[in-house]
Amino acid sequence: MIGRAVRNIAVVVLALLWLVPTYLLIVNGVSSVHGFTGTARWFPNSFGLFDNVGKAWSTAQFGPAMINSLVYAVVSGGLAVLIASLAAFAVVAMPSRRPTMWFWVIYAGTLFPLQMFLRPLFSSYAKLNLYDTKLGLFIIYTAMCIPFAFFVVRNYLASVPRDMVEAARIDGAPWWRVFASVHLPLGRPAMAAAFIFQFVWVWNDLLFGITLTFSPGARPLMAALAGLQGSYSTVGPPVVLAGALVVSLPTVILFFAFQRLFVSSLRTNI
Questions:
Q1: What topology does CATH give the domain 53-269?
Q2: Local structure of 50: helix, strand or coil
């Protein structure tokens, strides 16, 4: 009983520590710019959320940037999950030499720090005319999303009974049919969870957005928010915080909308 109480207290304390920055973001983001003194407030004394959001939206051009991020997240995340699912099927179900080696070759993409890719990417994108283009971001986002999506889907597909594959092959089904009729329907929860992971990562990406783009036509949402932060002294801290609050809402809504699917897939992988 004592151990359980200590554990519960530790969980509550950690949750409060995580919630404090969010609370300060909300309180100071809804505060009016005119009533802001420059010191973070713990309790709001005025309400200026809609004015702050409107100013942040127009100053940082959030509209085009939000559409860009939505397209990047949906297309790159979906394409990465499809490629990762095909690779996972090849490693798990199809007869291949050294499947463990191929697993580590693909999964190794998650082990390297992203900063090490910036210099060669910038140089090669400049030479290939991919710098500041949507195609350039589509390519890098898809490539970066594949390894972790492969890890999630592969672990899920490994639980599919081998007898189902053998029965389908005995009936004369080609490999693409086995994937479409057996593994694809059974692996949908893992694929959906992997897509949510990658959607959130692409939506929240700042590193590649500010390194590989600069124009509003290709710039993702977080890069636009970073540009708004550059206008910190002009628009005021509450406007910047209100903008950060707005751009974080879609991922929060997505997570809570698919929370049950997300948790069930993680349970299976664990």
A1: MetI-like fold (1.10.3720)
A2: helix
Q: CA of 181: how far to CAs of 56, 62, 85, 154, in Å? A: 48, 42, 14, 17
* 8-state DSSP, 117: G
Q: What's the mean pLDDT when you consider all of the chain?
A: 79
pLDDT tens for 141-199 read: 998 888 888 888 888 877 777 777 777 777 677 777 777 777 777 778 888 888 888 89
Q: Find where tokens 């997505």 sit.
A: 254
Cα separation, 27 vs 47, in Å, equals: 9
Amino acid at 206: L
| End-to-end CA gap in the chain | 27
CA distances (Å), origin 154, targets 112, 166, 178, 231, 265 = 20, 18, 16, 45, 12
Every domain range in the chain assigned CATH 1.10.3720.10: 53-269
The per-residue pLDDT for range 39-49, each reduced to its tens digit, is: 666 776 777 67
Burial 48-69 (b: 16+ CB within 10 A, else e): bbeebbebbbebbebeebbebb
From CA 97, how far away is CA 248, in angstroms rounded? 44
The count of other CB atoms within 10 Å of the CB of residue 270 is 6
Which residue stretches of the chain have pLDDT < 70?
Answer: 1-2, 33, 35-41, 44, 48, 171, 230-236, 259-270
Question: For residue 103, what are the CA distances in angstroms to 53, 112, 152, 170?
Answer: 45, 16, 12, 27
63's CB contacts (< 8 A; 6+ apart) are 57
